[in-house]
Amino acid sequence: MSRLGDLLRTERLRRKMTLKQVAKLGGVSEGYLKDVEEGKRIIADDQARRILKKMGLKEHNEAGFSLEDIAATVDLETVAPKQALTKPVAAKKNVESEAVYQSKNDDKVMGSVWLDALTSVLKRVPVYNAVMKEVDHRLLPVLDGRIEGAAPDKVFFFSAPDDSMRGFRILREDVCLIVPSNSPIDGAVMLVEYNQHRFIRKVKKLDAMTVLLQSYDREYNAETVALPEVNFLGRVTRVEFTL
Fold first, then answer.
1. Is 201 in contact with 213 (CB distance < 8 Å)?
2. Tens of pLDDT, residues 160-192
3. CA 53, 45, 113, 61 torsion: positive or negative?
4. How many angstroms separate the CA atoms of 117 and 133, rounded?
5. What CATH number does domain 3-115 carry, 4.10.950, 2.60.220, 1.10.260, 1.10.1060?
6. Residue 148 — φ and ψ, nearest 5°?
7. pLDDT, tens digit, for every residue of 20-53?
8. How confident is the model at residue 88 (pLDDT cuts 50, 70, 90)?
9. CA gap 235, 222 in Å, rounded
10. Cβ–Cβ under 8 Å, residues 39 and 1
């Protein structure tokens, strides 16, 4: 089954368009489009995007997501129309007149099923390296307007810069989800900024003014630090690794 083919079919059915209409708008054969929708042929992202745009999809609503991002995360089975197609609309004289006809009908389409779903349940979360430069991103579900209990635009991922947390099962380039917290949490693994460097440490509160920053590469290490000397950026709540 082709996810991009499912996207094309979902948008076509939403707009009550026939295969012939969409194929003509997209400059492809009706048979080719039918095979794509049925998963018998693979369509490139840019070609699918062009056809969707011809159908009236407004790209600026995608908020930085690629079609592959959307296709891989939206369950089209739950949003695809269950009804059969209505009778085909009479063919237009040429592509230009059909495009004008479709443009007039765009006002009747209240957005896109999969884009509406995307913006309400998914968030593009950046992955930062040790100098807080974005190097990648992940898509995370938004539940009741929150991610891990925090505002969706506040959470981020941090790529571990080294193996200093090996003993706590966090290796170099593992991706850690960070939920913001500017104060130490006893017993938590946290992203901290100390001596102009950012790294992950397990935190132990010693008293009101000092904490222990614990690491474990080849051997256990701990450093006692005065609270004013360290900035706490957030708590690690999840770790992803690549096999």
1. yes
2. 999 999 999 999 999 999 999 999 999 999 999
3. negative
4. 29
5. 1.10.260
6. 50, 35
7. 999 998 889 999 999 888 888 888 878 888 888 8
8. very low
9. 18
10. yes
What single letter denotes the amino acid at residue 77? Answer: E
* Tokens read off for 189: 């693994």
Distance CA 104, CA 13 (A): 17
Quickly name the fold that domain 129-240 has. Umud Fragment, subunit A (2.10.109)
What is the rounded CA–CA span in Å between residue 243 and residue 240?
A: 10
Q: Give 177's DSSP letter.
A: E
CB 177 within 8 A of CB 123: no
Retrieve residue 156's tokens. Answer: 């981020």
**C-alpha span between 230 and 194 (Å, rounded):** 5
Q: What number of residues does the chain have?
A: 243
Judge whether 179 and 149 are in contact, CB under 8 Å. yes
* Structure-block tokens of residue 100: 């004008």
Structure tokens at 197: 């460097």
Q: How far apart are CA 75 and CA 179, in angstroms?
A: 27
Long-range contacts of residues 104-107, Cβ cutoff 8 Å, at least 24 apart: 105/15, 105/56, 106/56
Contacts for 56 with CB less than 8 Å, ≥ 6 apart = 15, 102, 103, 105, 106, 109
